[in-house]
Amino acid sequence: MNEVEAVIAMKRGDRSAFKYLFTTYYSRLVAYITTYTHDKFQSEDIVQHAFIRFWEDKSKLDETKSPKGYLYAIAYNRYIDTIKKTKKQEKLLDQIWERALIDRIEEDSEMQEMRIQKMKEIIETLPPKCRKIIQMNKVQGIGYKEIAAQMGISIKTVESQMRIAFTKIREAFKNDSVLLFVLFEKFRNGNK
């Protein structure tokens, strides 16, 4: 059986003719597509799909010509389709990743605002002297020595009041203790 005879027989549904053409061209087509993909497994998959298409479109074959050019064209087009599909999937994944990041940033911003609000509420519940000392230190950036001088109290009292404030804040944020430093910085910057 030659290629033209195989095409005629295949058009009539002869599977042995298809098998003959498959055996004749499979390895060559895999080698050809591998020059593009640089991946033998991917090339084998593409060529297998090309042969499926070849069988499905057997009625379109020209009985007077070798199917070689048609098979190479199908395999190449299948390769192009694979690239387009991969690029589409990558683009979709990039869009999903970007949306997830945006959502996370928005969620983090909302959570941070909630934490700052909670911090303000906790500070408002502190005794007046304690509240004033923590605001002077963390909001206005005034050191302990200067706070002591301005308020007419000892540095030890300032330290003691700060300890009281931190204890209450730590207690309120016991599940968020890692964020305390960030919150104090945000609280301080947000209230200047």
Automatic annotation (TrEMBL):
Any one Pfam family here would be: Sigma70_r2
Annotated Gene3D superfamilies: 1.10.1740.10, Winged helix-like DNA-binding domain superfamily/Winged helix DNA-binding domain (1.10.10.10)
Entry keyword Transcription regulation? yes
Keywords from the UniProt entry: Sigma factor, Transcription, Transcription regulation
Please state every residue range assigned to the domain named RNA polymerase sigma-70 region. Answer: 21-88
Q: Which GO terms describe its biological process?
A: DNA-templated transcription initiation
Residue span, RNA polymerase sigma factor 70 region 4 type domain: 118-163
Query: Its Gene Ontology molecular function terms?
Result: DNA binding; sigma factor activity
What family is reported?
Belongs to the sigma-70 factor family. ECF subfamily.
What PANTHER family is this protein classified in?
RNA POLYMERASE ECF-TYPE SIGMA FACTO, RNA POLYMERASE SIGMA-70 FACTOR ECF SUBFAMILY
- Its recorded name reads RNA polymerase sigma-70 factor, ECF subfamily
Q: In the record, what lineage is assigned to the organism producing the protein?
A: Bacteria, Pseudomonadati, Bacteroidota, Flavobacteriia, Flavobacteriales
